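Task card 7
Instruction: Convert sequence to C-alpha cells.
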Amino acid sequence: MISFGPIPSRRLGKSLGINNIPAPKTCSYACVYCQVGPTRKHTITRQNFYKPSQIFGEVRQHLQKLDKTDLPDYLTFVPNGEPTLDKGLGEAIRMLKALDIPIAVITNASLFSEEGVIGDLCEADWVSVKMDAANEQTWKAINRPHKDLYWEQLQKGIEEFAARFRGTLVSETLLVDNINDDTETIRETAFRVANLNPAKAYLSIPTRPPAKSSVRAPSEQTITEAYQAFGEQGLDTELLLGFEGTDTGFTGNAEEDILNISAVHPIREDTMAELLRKNQAGFDLVESLISEGKIKTVEFKGKNFFLRNIRSSV
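Output:
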C-alpha cells in the first residue's frame, strides 16, 4: 500500500504517511543516518512512479478505514526515498487537497534546481527542508549526495524555494557525532538556516537504527551548544531528541499495517505491541513475518526495532 499510519509525529501531530516511491529505496542522497536504510537506487532523474489518481484513491480508502477519532492532522509525503523524484508529486498534492487535510512534504531539498520541483512543492501546505551541513565537505560526508549534485546549486535552489513558498517552511538539521557537530560547522549551519527565515528550525539526532552502524548522537553538551547557536541567529528552534510515542493508527489489518509502516518508519518494540493490541493480533504474526523474511529486527540504543526487509538492490 501507498499510505500508512497515522503515526505520531513530533512535528506534525498525527501524520498519515504517503510512500510515493516504491521499493527499492530510491534517493538522491545516501545519508549515513537514514532510518530507511541504504540507498539502493542512487539517482537524480525524476520519473513516474504511482499514478496520482492511485495515490489519491488509496489515501481516501485508508482514511475511510480509520476511526473518526483517529483521523490525521496532516497527509505527509515521507517515502522510501526522496519524494521530489516523483514527477507526479504536484498533481498528487493537488488531488489530495480535495480531502481537506493539510499536506506536508519532507524533502532533502537536493532537486530544487530541477524543472518543476519548486512548483510542485509550492502546492503543499507545509514543507521541511534538510539543512545538515554548512559546507561542501561536510555535506558529502553526512548526506553522501549523488555525484551529479553540486553544493552551490543546492544552496541557490533552497533559497529560491524559500523565497517563493507561501506555506509553512521549516528546516531540519540532524547532528551526528564527529561529522557535523563541531562548533564552527554548527554556527555556519545556523547562519545558513537563518537566511531561509523558516517558521521553525528543528534540531534532531539519530533515534532509530541508521544506515551506517557507526553513526552516533552527539554529546548533550554539543546539543545544548547547537540549540544556543541556532537561537542566537533568531531562529525559533525546537529539539527533536526523544521518542514520539506508541499511538500509531491502525486499519484492522495487522499485517498490512506492519509492512506498510516498517517500510519507511522502523517500528520500536513498544509501538509494535500497541499496534498488535489495537489490531487484536498476537506476536506470533510478527514471528511469522520474520520467518518469512518480510521484516527483520535491529537493535539500537538498547531497543529492538522492526524494519521491512527489502531484498532488492541495484
